[in-house]
Amino acid sequence: MSRFDEHRHGAVPPIVALLVVQLCLGYEWFVSGLTKIVHGDFPGGLSTELGDVGKHAPGWYRGILTNAIEPHAQVVAYGIEIAELLAGLVLIGAAIVWLIRGSRLSDRARSAIQFAIGAAILVALVLLVNFELAHGGGFGLRLAADSFDEGIDLDTLMIGLHLAVLGFAVTALPAAATSADGRSLSRPLHRARRRSSVPAA
Fold first, then answer.
1. CA nearest 95: which of 123, 117, 121?
2. Backbone angles phi, psi at 2, to 5 degrees
3. Nearest-5° angle of CA 117, CA 122, CA 127?
């Protein structure tokens, strides 16, 4: 008996676990974007914030902040709000749909969900990499400046989790769907063979 047969009434535990991780990541992005929109001070304050945190950014990235982002900080801020909100909604929605419908989805729906998850993760990764660079983070490649600081900053941890979910969307989801389809098709065929093997009266 395969592991898919053992869980024929739902997604296998590893798939469920990764979908829960995706739900948590989506919820974090949704709340972050919604907070910025509700408070309404993010577009007006981003330029000042970048001026403060940008002092710790690498020299080459500080130049990008100063010359390309800060002059258009308000437009960039609106883009960040929309990107965070949409990424969160997509990750939450895709995870819920897959948890509820799973192998009952059509091939077109599965491809659409994979594409949506991949696009949302790539948007999130672009945001996270820029947040890490703006704050002068080392992507977990150097020791913390203080013994009381966290070993790996949150943005670096989030990057790792998003890469894991991206790999999961590209490989695990289609594999699970294919196996589930094979299981559902094999049962009728098996029953048909048994019926055909019964001698006629």
1. 117
2. -80, 165
3. 125
